[in-house]
TrEMBL record:
Pfam families: Usp (PF00582)
Organism annotation: Shewanella decolorationis S12
Name of the protein described by the UniProt record: Universal stress protein a
UspA domain span: 5-143
Family: Belongs to the universal stress protein A family.
Length: 143
């Protein structure tokens, strides 16, 4: 029996929303809480090039605020009595998800896969695959 929370990393996509149903089902099955994580990737830029009207730090802060708004809307739409924890982190999605997944209070990760194949699979980082390979707890990958 699982005693740790169910971690559901989200990018607020439809695919991630589909995985949320499985995360809630697993949390209810094991009578544990749900932890929702969104990772904002750090924008890359060099102020010396004068290309950006704002600094990468300002852009990241704006992205975090937008994510917080989306997270609040998501929570308002959930119809569950589960205890829910939300986190918004900045950095590499794989690193941040694995840091949280390998913490003491996570018993399972439920993550969406965007299902890329062929050339697209090689050109884009497969977050779900990296998390499944690096997590110490069980990982459910939802297509």
């Amino acid at each position: 029996m699982r005693s740790g929370q169910i971690l559901w990393p989200t990018d607020f996509s439809e695919t991630a929303a589909h995985a949320l149903r499985y995360a809630i089902e697993m949390a209810n099955l094991y009578h544990v809480g749900l932890k929702i994580l969104h990772v904002v990737e750090q924008p890359i830029g060099d102020e010396n090039y004068m290309i950006l009207a704002i600094t990468p730090e300002e852009l990241a802060k704006s992205m975090e605020e937008a994510a917080a708004t989306k997270m609040q809307a998501l929570l308002e739409g959930l119809k569950t009595e589960l205890p829910i924890t939300t986190l918004i982190r900045r950095g590499d999605p794989v690193d941040q998800i694995l840091e949280e997944a390998n913490g003491k209070d996570v018993g399972m990760v439920v993550i969406a896969s965007h299902g890329r194949t062929g050339l697209s699979h090689f050109l884009h980082t497969n977050v779900a695959e990296a998390v499944a390979n690096g997590a110490k707890c069980p990982v459910l990958v939802v297509k």
